[in-house]
Amino acid sequence: RRSRRATAPLTKEEATGGERAWEGAGGDGPSRINLVFGRSDSASFEAGWETLLGQGECQNWVRSSPDKLEAMRYPGEWKFAGGAVETGETPQEAAKRELEEEFQVKLPEDSAQCKFHLLSIKQTRPIRNVSNIMYNFVAAAEENAWLESLDAARINVALAARRERHRSAVKDGSFWHLSQALREQVSPEIREVQWLDMRSAVLHTFTSMNDSCMPVNAFQEEEFARLGIRRRDPMFLTMATLLEVESFPSVQSLAHYSGGICPESELKRIQWLTDGMSPEDVRRAWERNISPTDQGRKGMFRTAEERLALRRSREQEDTRATWRIETLTSSAGV
Questions:
Q1: H/E element holding 140?
Q2: What is the pLDDT of residues 107-117, one digit of tens each?
Q3: What angle do CA 128, 131, 137 make, to 5 degrees?
Q4: What would the mean pLDDT of 152-168 be, rounded to a whole number?
Q5: I want to staple 141 with a disulfide (CB 3.0 to 4.6 A). Which of 17, 102, 147, 316 is the partner?
Q6: Sequence-ordered list of residues with C-beta below 8 angstroms from that of 286, at least 6 positions apart, any chain
């Protein structure tokens, strides 16, 4: 959704916590600087977007036991709703289902009242011989009444009630006797949802890649201490997706761009790992794609300068489109 509230520029000093700017995040260190700041010492977020994000729980209750506590992946991070595409689903159907399941959002059954735009397709780096293809969709409050009227406070009350039911089951011991499927239904996954302005959202993802652990809030800090977690999981792709949204000055601009994406062609363009590749093939592919902002990654990500130039170009396109609409309306009224 759009907000009229202005936010202060994000400085490199604040984002890095005083670390040398190119450090942190392993090979992503220089890339995160290029994406957010480019050659500048600060980044401004002018489009006014706010994003609905959920802060994940830190403990993975499905995999934990009374004697061994397991952590979630991306514990305590602010993230999009998302998950695996199930058999028979399209990526968009999976995105809608995950939004309902994780964020406790009830979507309209009428597809005309539920507009989603394909923003991008990305491929993750391989972890334990698995690389995922990610489809990112955007639903704008301006086009979706259910999102415009969404009550985050009500959702958080429901999430708190779920945590309390789960806490009671753990306390009386009944939780540990449930099947995995029932544990998944009972266990909390998202702690709360919030509309975050773009500056805050990008800052949280950026600091996940700092060498020193900078918790997003007291909840994450306390849970890391309880579970013995020393480092945050890097939120590079989430950061890149947020910045991609920032390059659009309006919903109309985003919708126009999305309408020009051919999913099959885009997947072929961005995919750099395929099934059956040997470890050596994967190593060579990674070396060719080590910097996400280089041509080796086929333009999967844009630098700060490229993103700003693109937004300016799209603003001009919006202006021209508005002029055409006003001219035609005026003529029709004559």
A1: none
A2: 999 988 999 99
A3: 140
A4: 97
A5: 147
A6: 125, 126
